[in-house]
Design goal:
This protein is an all-alpha fold. It has helices at residues 2-23, 25-35, 39-50, 57-89, 96-123, 131-164, 172-183, 187-203, 208-230, 239-280, 287-291, 294-334, 344-372. Helix content is 69%, strand content 0%.
Length: 447
């Protein structure tokens, strides 16, 4: 990872200097300011999708940096070389730019962006658990790439306007800004998300052959859609608007619908799988509905920060992330994920130990958030809520019995499974005051 960080730093310096040389210093800073505008909304949208089981920020920032630096540098150099080669090899050099934008640029750019997804998929497989992760990683990578590309296009447009003395309303800068920032800020993320969905589908596939085939299929679709978009201007006077209205917008709407659906399915999986651990005593009963609700998670972090400072809020955030990772781990293994999760027992032990170490801080905050948000259904009654106003001076958790302690009761953790008939004897988990790892039941499959 250190080598990759150094690589990103070196390519970042190289790409900034290269773009500045092509646009000029004034154009570079104008393009930089305008290109920054769509970055925060896009990053927030992809982060929202991944909040159900959030990836580490350092991983997402690496993907953004790869797209903005390494992938952009590869694309600029390769596209320039290919355009010059086509111009020298054809009888009509004027067609080199158009041919390069349709036949060369989509292949080079999508392959360069896909390299970041491949690195995360191979070296951070624990954080690559399904289509949602592919969606998020691809989105951050493509947002970084589009950021650098927009600096280049907007900076060059500004340089031409200055050279020709064009007015503001008739300027090429305004037209470029309208097309790239207003109409189609989602273009590059849209292409690369198709590759990300291929990697995400491969992550949950039980067949090893699909581990290669699905990402390649997603990459081919990304290249094809990218080529269609780049070639839309060559389809006549209204070709751009036809492709934009009949292809780009419907595909964008479909992917938005798919993103919302994936997020909801993830939260339902979190609720269903964590209920088993709650029944075993590893989680408090009120924690399950709170962990399956993003507003309740946010409220729990706020309550923890108010009572225990930033450290308590951070502990609750880590607890929520580990709980979601535990639920998705069991969900994949139960459905027969890759090799039925051969490292399931070790990873489960690690996550449960992490939860146990933070439960004293996170449990009360999540239980309080569940009550305040009125998330507990009538049948979920180990925590009997007091009658009275929802918000008021009275403590909403006053009189609520303390959650069960797994070290005092038998934690029959996932005691049965359709694929597993052999009984097992539960072991006692570590005492929360001890620093030793949790002594969890052994086994090589989903219990």
């Amino acid at each position: 990872m250190c080598v990759l960080v150094v690589l990103l730093a070196a390519t970042g310096i190289a790409i900034l200097e290269l773009v500045r040389e092509q646009t000029g210093t004034p154009g570079f800073f104008v393009g930089l300011g305008l290109a920054l505008l769509p970055v925060p909304p896009l990053m927030a949208a992809f982060r929202w999708l991944g909040r159900a089981a959030p990836a580490p920020w350092r991983q997402l920032l690496f993907c953004f940096g790869w797209g903005a630096c390494t992938a952009a540098l590869i694309a600029i150099l390769a596209n320039s070389f290919a355009t010059e080669w086509i111009a020298a090899a054809t009888a009509d050099p004027s067609d080199a730019d158009q041919l390069g934008s349709v036949a060369i640029a989509p292949v080079v750019e999508e392959s360069a962006k896909a390299a970041a997804l491949l690195l995360v998929f191979v070296f951070r497989r624990r954080q690559f658990t399904g289509p949602a992760d592919g969606f998020v990683v691809a989105g951050f990578t493509a947002t970084g790439f589009a950021f650098t590309e927009n600096i280049l296009y907007l900076g060059n447009a500004f340089g031409e306007d200055v050279a020709e003395g064009t007015g503001v309303l008739d300027s090429l800068t305004v037209a470029t800004f309208f097309v790239r920032i207003v109409l189609s800020p989602f273009a590059h993320p849209l292409f690369t998300v198709l590759t990300g969905l291929g990697f995400g589908a491969a992550a949950v596939s039980a067949r090893r052959a699909r581990t290669v085939g699905l990402p390649l299929l997603g990459l081919a679709l990304a290249m094809g859609l990218h080529a269609l978009w780049n070639g839309s201007s060559q389809l006549g006077e209204y070709g751009f608007y036809m492709v934009y209205g009949s292809v780009m917008v419907p595909v964008f709407g479909l992917l938005v619908w798919l993103a919302v659906r994936i997020r909801r399915r993830r939260l339902r999986a979190v609720a269903g799988e964590l209920a088993v651990y709650a029944a075993a005593g590893w989680l408090g009963p009120a924690e399950v509905p709170a962990l399956a609700s993003m507003p309740a998670r946010s409220l729990a972090r706020t309550l923890a920060r108010r009572s225990g400072g930033r450290a308590a809020g951070r502990a609750v955030a880590l607890y929520e992330a580990d709980a979601a990772a535990l639920a998705l781990l069991r969900n994949r293994a139960r459905r027969g994920g890759p090799a039925e999760e051969p490292d399931f027992a070790g990873r489960e032990r690690e996550l449960l130990h992490s939860l146990w170490m933070r439960r004293a801080t996170a449990g009360p905050a999540l239980a309080r958030a569940a009550v305040m948000e009125e998330l507990l259904p009538p049948w979920f009654d180990p925590l009997a809520r007091r009658p009275g106003p929802r918000f008021g001076p009275a403590d909403p958790l006053a009189g609520v019995p303390a959650p069960r302690r797994p070290d005092l009761e038998r934690p029959d953790l996932v005691a049965s499974d359709a694929r597993r008939s052999a009984p097992w004897t539960p072991a006692r988990p570590a005492d929360p005051s001890s620093s030793r790892p949790c002594a969890l039941p052994g086994g090589d499959g989903v219990r």
